[in-house]
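Query structure, 479 tokens:
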């Protein structure tokens, strides 16, 4: 293998031919035209090189001692789907030319070379590759511009969210952020903090779904020594810890009713009282609450206090689900690919057009989090410079099943299902039950594993008549 001096801005050409003079001629010509060139004298050497350095273009001889050029073309397309391939042969044959084009070759050149045509083909290809690279660079640049405190979005809905946060952040004392799971509620809360006047003060988070009922009061408001068994030291709560800054009450819909009343008091009076103390303390804190529950429905069902709800939703920001702002998908994808490629140190710089289509059309019940996970997994699986449908198929893992788009699924045979095949509804019911068993009936954990919002899980539980089922019944394995 021989290489010319590498230059990151030039497209990389891999030339594979067992005749050294051909390698030399092409290397010189292509370098003049603007390629970085790597030459290999055998198919095996070419594949090894390609795995290390994914090329943008490969010129492959049709007949080599160790491999047929058409087979090598197939291997290259599998290993590096974004790599263009030009076949070359001294034995012009219409059949192999047609076959090569069908297998995805870009051109078919005959030897001895017609140098004018060879130059033209290389120049055209270089220009197209550079145009493609520019588009990708532009997309990630645009992604950077359409960023607001770490949140990306070009859709009118997200631009509206950014503008709302920007306008309200300096003034709002209580904010409610709602939206399905994975839509970016926590990110929005941080953006509020960043865009406000308290950005240098603490940002403290408490996840209400992770606190044991009996410890809520102490977590929020603190306790004094000896207030209850185990309270060996006095301890401030999150309200005091966030003094002067922002307190983020995540999953506020999980707050027990008894604690809701105390939270309401703290919000109304700007005072907290540690458990076991009679001394109220003044706190100056911006409270941002987030939920993926429909709090209005929770109020109607008597599970959430109406007065607390109205106190919280003075300012309400709703993050739209990703399926309602699909124009954000390419921008989010470009940014996630850029970050992830840098993290896993791979030269991945985009997706094939087919892979982009798959992402655009997926269901995304798990929203941006799910998209991010899919891209991360695909980057880990990727060998080439572009993510293809193949990596995506591997990346839509078991916990993101609901987002799996039709394009990634194997087509079902037409006609009636085979006898004994359970209907889809039944498979879904069994799958939900199995996941609930795995997480001991914890519905929030189950929704996360299934990659759907909790509300979506509740809807499905109702549809399958599982909503009223007590956890132990869910946990019983079918006999
Ligand atoms: N607009 C966005 N731009 C960039 N990244 C985003 C955006 N929205 C969400 N993300 C990313 O998606 C992931 C999920 O976001 P986040 O945790 O804020 O969602 P959430 O609404 O709080 O989800 P949950 O309801 O499950 O807690 C995070 O990794 C976050 O960085
Ligand atoms: Mg969250």
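Result returned for the query:
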């Amino acid at each position: 293998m021989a290489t010319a001096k590498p230059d990151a801005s030039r497209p990389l050409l891999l030339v594979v031919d067992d005749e050294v003079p051909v390698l030399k001629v092409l290397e010189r010509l292509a370098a003049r035209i603007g390629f970085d060139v790597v030459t290999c004298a055998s198919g095996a050497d070419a594949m090894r090189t390609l795995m290390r350095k994914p090329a943008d273009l490969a010129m492959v001889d049709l007949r080599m001692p160790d491999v047929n050029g058409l087979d090598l073309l197939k291997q290259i397309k599998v290993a590096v789907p974004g790599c263009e391939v030009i076949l070359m042969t001294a034995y012009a044959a219409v059949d192999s030319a047609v076959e090569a084009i069908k297998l995805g070759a870009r051109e078919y050149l005959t030897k001895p070379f017609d140098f004018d045509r060879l130059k033209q083909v290389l120049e055209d290809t270089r220009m197209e590759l550079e145009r493609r690279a520019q588009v990708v660079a532009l997309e990630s640049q645009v992604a950077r511009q359409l960023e607001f405190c770490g949140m990306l979005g070009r859709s009118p809905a997200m631009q509206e969210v950014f503008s709302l946060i920007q306008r309200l952040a300096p003034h709002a004392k209580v904010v409610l952020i709602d939206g399905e799971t994975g839509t970016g509620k926590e990110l929005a809360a941080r953006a509020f903090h960043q865009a406000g006047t308290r950005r240098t003060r603490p940002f403290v988070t408490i996840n209400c779904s992770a606190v044991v009922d009996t410890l809520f009061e102490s977590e929020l408001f603190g306790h004094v020594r000896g207030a209850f068994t185990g309270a060996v030291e006095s301890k401030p709560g999150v309200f005091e810890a966030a003094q002067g800054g922002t307190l983020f009450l995540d999953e506020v819909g999980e707050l027990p009713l008894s604690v809701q009343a105390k939270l309401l008091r703290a919000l109304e009076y700007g005072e907290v009282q540690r458990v076991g103390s009679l001394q109220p303390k003044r706190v100056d804190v911006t409270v941002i609450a987030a939920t993926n529950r429909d709090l209005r429905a929770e109020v109607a069902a008597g599970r959430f206090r109406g007065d607390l709800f109205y106190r919280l939703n003075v300012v309400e920001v709703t993050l739209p689900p990703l399926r309602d702002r699909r124009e954000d998908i390419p921008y989010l994808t470009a940014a996630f690919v850029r970050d992830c490629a840098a993290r896993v140190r791979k030269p991945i710089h985009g997706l094939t057009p087919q892979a982009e289509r798959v992402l655009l059309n997926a269901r995304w019940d798990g929203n941006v989090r799910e998209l991010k996970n899919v891209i991360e997994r695909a980057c880990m699986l990727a060998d080439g410079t572009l993510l293809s449908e193949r990596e995506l198929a591997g990346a839509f893992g078991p916990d993101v099943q609901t987002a799996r788009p039709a394009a990634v699924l194997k087509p079902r045979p037409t006609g009636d299902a085979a006898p004994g095949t359970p209907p889809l509804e039944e498979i879904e019911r069994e799958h939900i039950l199995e996941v609930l068993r795995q997480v001991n009936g914890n519905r929030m954990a189950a929704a996360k594993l299934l990659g759907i919002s909790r509300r979506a899980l509740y809807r499905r539980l109702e549809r399958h008549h599982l909503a009223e089922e007590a956890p132990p019944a869910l946990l019983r394995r079918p006999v």
